[in-house]
Amino acid sequence: MPDNWSVETVGNYATGAPYTDPKALSRKPARNGARFESISNVDLELHKFFRIFELNTDVFMRVTNLFDQRNVLNWDDYDQDFRNWLVAHPGDFLGPFGDYTVYGSPRKVLGGVKVRF
User: Would the pLDDT of 19 be above 80?
Assistant: First the structure.
């Protein structure tokens, strides 16, 4: 890659959070005996450096959640309806009431210019 370009990536992975399987409520369930799906994320940042009017300039593009993963991040551990929904509707990421707040941010693309003087 030429000296005036920069590429940065950051990735993370975590196993899914534990929960008590609501299907097991008719018998004595093992507390936290099941897990949500694992979560992963990749961010990417591109930079192009050059000089304009004797000023150091950086034009950049930042992409967070590059692969648009839907990761369950926020839920009420006592919200039995939400846990039941995830078990009954695997892959339906809207939740029981179309509630996006339980998921991490979707893909986001930002661009900008930095000028140092």
Answer: no
